[in-house]
Design the sequence.
């Protein structure tokens, strides 16, 4: 009697507790998106000034640099994959991993060796479980990356590009991260960071303002400036990618937690309906039992009267 | 006064200072350089060092800058730094502690960073 009702009550209680947790996570993520977006915006002046400077060197001189020269037959390519440290973010990490897989397959089809670098625990776990080789990985800062983190990631990558391919260096550097398009849309994108095509960079900044750049005086020399400028440029690109990935991660988590909360609400609603029906069924049964008992009693006493 | 230049001091993660100035002194790898309005277009590599900006209203802004670039064209000057701090933002005690620690550990780069921070502060006071 009433056991069905008790089961429903218990389920409602447990789903309510889950809903509280997902709701809290949703709100935390929502506040962090704003913070992450603000960080992206704060890093923009540096990135755009740097792009302008790189463009200036590119147009103002004809210096060759290891980071800008296209190798004729690229033999090895590095892929930097940016995933998250924590789960519960819907398809965020798996989408990025899928994009990296596609890129890797494409590069392999082009006859290149692919070496993988990973940011974020989820990516490391995915590659570790499948026993795929990872050259280097960084974890622990995907929530809110700092410039120092970006520098840490960029260091070995730049070194690998500068090193000769025969000595274990790479010819190309690709980065796969999740671009923050809007609160609702985040798409995994893959970009080739190195070798830097200066023409593309020039076009990019010229689209913003098309005017002829003045003839610059380089201090100490154009090679010296390029030497110092390009690593910084790569760092700032990686920093930007990490920041966008962080914003995307929070947005993805917010959306995942929102749908979890909605689902919990639906569950609670349907369980409440079922519990009500069960309670009503109990009552109806009790009434019919009483009525049945009463009429049986009435029949019995009526029979004895006669 | 017609001659003034627009200065943007940007660090990797934020915009530190921007405004009009009459003179900017910064340390490049080949020595100190002073930029006044009308200077030839310039792109240089900065060394860790204090940057002095004389603003149009007569005040002086000093900042500690660690690594980066100076670029100047069309009376617009941008100072790009990985790390940049204005003198009034610098915590003197912390910088002194960092200097001592760097000296103890014989970390030349850290010592230089702390030194620059202190130089930026003492230059004003």
Sequence:
């Amino acid at each position: 009697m009433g056991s069905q009702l008790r089961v429903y009550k218990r389920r409602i209680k447990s789903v309510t507790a889950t809903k509280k947790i997902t709701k809290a996570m949703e709100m935390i993520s929502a506040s962090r998106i704003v913070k992450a977006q603000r960080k992206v915006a704060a890093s923009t002046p540096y990135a755009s000034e740097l792009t302008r400077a790189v463009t200036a060197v590119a147009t103002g001189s004809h210096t060759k640099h290891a980071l800008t020269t296209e190798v004729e037959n690229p033999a090895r390519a590095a892929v930097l994959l940016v995933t998250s440290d924590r789960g519960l973010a819907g398809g965020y990490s798996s989408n990025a991993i899928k994009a990296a897989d596609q890129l890797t397959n494409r590069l392999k089809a082009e006859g290149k060796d692919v070496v993988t670098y990973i940011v974020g625990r989820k990516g490391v776990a995915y590659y570790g479980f499948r026993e795929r080789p990872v050259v280097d990985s960084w974890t622990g800062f995907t929530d809110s990356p700092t410039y120092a983190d970006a520098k840490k990631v960029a260091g070995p990558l730049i070194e690998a590009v500068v090193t000769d391919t025969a000595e274990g260096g790479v010819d190309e550097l690709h980065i796969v991260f999740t671009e923050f398009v809007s609160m609702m849309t985040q798409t995994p994108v893959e970009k080739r960071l190195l070798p830097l095509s200066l023409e593309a960079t020039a076009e990019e900044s010229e689209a913003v303002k098309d005017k002829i750049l003045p003839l610059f005086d380089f201090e100490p020399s154009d090679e010296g400036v390029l030497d110092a400028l390009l690593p910084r440029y790569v760092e700032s690109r990686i920093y930007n990618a990490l920041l966008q990935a962080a914003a995307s991660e929070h947005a993805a988590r917010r959306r995942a937690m929102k749908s979890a909360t909605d689902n919990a609400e639906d569950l609670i609603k349907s369980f409440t309906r079922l519990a009500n029906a069960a309670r009503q069924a109990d009552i109806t049964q009790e009434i019919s039992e009483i009525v049945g008992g009463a009429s049986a009693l009435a029949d019995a006493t009526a029979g004895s009267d006669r | 006064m017609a001659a003034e230049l627009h200065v943007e001091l940007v660090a990797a993660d934020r915009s530190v200072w921007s405004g009009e100035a009459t003179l900017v002194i910064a340390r490049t790898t080949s020595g100190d350089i002073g930029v006044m309005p009308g200077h030839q277009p310039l792109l240089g590599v900065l060394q860790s060092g204090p940057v002095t900006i004389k603003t149009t209203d007569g005040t002086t802004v000093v900042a500690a800058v660690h690594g980066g670039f100076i670029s100047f064209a069309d009376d617009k000057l941008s100072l790009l730094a990985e790390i940049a701090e204005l003198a009034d933002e610098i915590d003197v005690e912390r910088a002194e502690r960092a200097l001592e620690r760097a000296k103890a550990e014989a970390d030349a780069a850290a010592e230089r960073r702390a030194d620059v921070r202190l130089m930026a502060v003492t230059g004003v006071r």
